[in-house]
Amino acid sequence: MTIKNIDLVDLASGYWKSFAIGAAVELNIFSELSENEQDTETLSKNISCAPLHLEALLNSLCGMGLLDKKNGNFFLHPAQKAFLDPKSPDSMLGAFAFNQDLAGLWMKLPECIRSGKPVLPDNPHLGADPDRTRRFVEGMHSRAGLMARNLLPCLHPPSGSKVLDVGGGPGTFSLKLAERDPSLLITVLDLPPVVKAAAEIHAGNPALKCITFQGGDYHSCDYPQEQDTVLYCGALHQEPDNGLDALLEKMKAALKPGGQLVVVDLMLDPDRTTPVYSSLFDINMMLMRPSSKVHTSHELMNRLKSCGFKNLTVSDIPHTPYRRVQGTK
User: Fold this and answer.
1) Per-domain residue ranges of the chain
2) Overall CATH class of domain 122-328
3) Strand partners, 164
4) 0.90 cut: is pTM over it?
């Protein structure tokens, strides 16, 4: 495979941009500028930063197209405001904050490759560390909110039907479905610390009356039965090859005849080199769970076929790095 015109300098320094964004999140720059435009002196006082150093960061954020600058004042770029304003339903700040938690892991990538062992063996974001769990759930919620905009038009559970959201994490897809159709009866199933954080994040949302949060390990706990739809969104990459068939069988058993299984996740092409974001995410999983992997859509389709699912389809979700695989019991 030949790739031409690679900017090696840009590739090698790509982390500069992500660290600049992470610093802006930690310093509350985006939050401050969401209220009103500010010059460097004013902003430096509001967030207790050195003016000269702060301006260098602000200028680079302008160059990246996240901020804009006029007459010495900085403000959120209009095209990015919805994603950088903490009050916006499309805010990505939670995802950016969680990315900072992952940054330290990537610094230890050589160690992981040499040893074949994770550098974060206890998965603190899945319950061992409550603060990190909260950041994880908030980060997944902000990512899922954007993906839901493109995924929901593809999901149409019948009104009044039962939906099981396996590994539902922040419950974002379920919440969006319930907001669109309050007649749905939805169960969000994930680890107890995760669903606890999810319920707290969404507290006060009227759509919660349609949703039950069930704490448990979805590999071993009982599922609600006679479901019309089972969603498995954003968790497939946690699963190693061994055990995946049994998990798919368990989801199938929870469905009514004719029910739909919808799997959404990052998936690779057959040679596992593309899409590049998915191949890099495969490394991200190794840093935490070396038995986990990003699966190819081709192998998932074959597993579902062997499991007895019919009417199998695969499609890219527009404007996201995710794919959807769907089948009927």
Assistant:
1) 8-87, 122-328
2) alpha beta
3) 187, 230
4) no
